[in-house]
Design a protein that fits this description.
about 210 residues, mainly alpha, 10 helices, globular
């Protein structure tokens, strides 16, 4: 979750540049008026992908979450590419094995195996459970829950305590880790984008 490298940032920039080249190149060759709707869909699928919408909707209902938030976390974590990170985080929602074990114990799973995280249904279910847990832990404050998903609860607890000692609430801008600040902003922005662009596929927030 935490410690994303420059490789991830470069990949996002490359995707945006490729999307722009597709629009310009194909639009010039065939005529913008003819291909524009298809291009818009292709660019959206490239820059803001959405897969497993049925699982996301199901988990959003069960966990009382905004489905756009689940999609936004998947987008920020893996760009909807099922993979294992260099730090060992697994699957679409990039769950650390220790975090997955914690979720399994807390959620009452009796036959969980780490290899199960390769299954989108299990991975999204576990990641969604953890989001709900973090939202309750931080009293419904999305920014804190998202920060903890990225940097861990111990770090966020420490930052919140330090802010309270100064008589203030922890704001996103005051998060000490630059990468976590950027991560929170990216997820919240993506949540709005998924709500705007995929509202019909994802369904309403609870």
């Amino acid at each position: 979750m935490y410690r994303r490298g420059r490789f991830e940032r470069r990949r996002r920039v490359a995707r945006r540049r490729l999307a722009a080249l597709v629009v310009v190149g194909v639009g010039t060759a065939l005529g913008v008026g003819v291909v524009w709707p298809a291009l818009q869909t292709a660019v959206r699928d490239l820059t803001l992908p959405l897969h497993h919408a049925d699982i996301i909707r199901q988990q959003a209902r069960e966990k009382r979450l905004d489905p756009a938030l689940i999609a936004a976390v998947i987008y920020a974590e893996s760009h909807f590419v099922d993979r294992t990170s260099p730090t060992g985080a697994l699957g679409l929602m990039q769950l650390e094995p220790a975090t997955a074990d914690f979720i399994a114990r807390k959620s009452g799973a009796t036959r969980f195996s780490i290899s199960d995280l390769a299954t989108p249904q299990v991975n999204i279910a576990y990641g969604s459970w953890y989001l709900r847990y973090l939202l309750e832990r931080y009293r419904g404050t999305p920014a804190l829950a998202i920060a903890a998903y990225n940097a861990g609860e111990a770090n966020v607890d420490r930052w919140v305590a330090t802010a309270r000692e100064r008589g203030i609430d922890l704001s996103t801008a005051a998060i000490p880790f630059p990468e976590t600040r950027a991560y929170v902003a990216r997820v919240l922005q993506a949540q709005g984008s998924y709500r705007a662009q995929y509202g019909a596929q994802l369904g309403a927030a609870p």
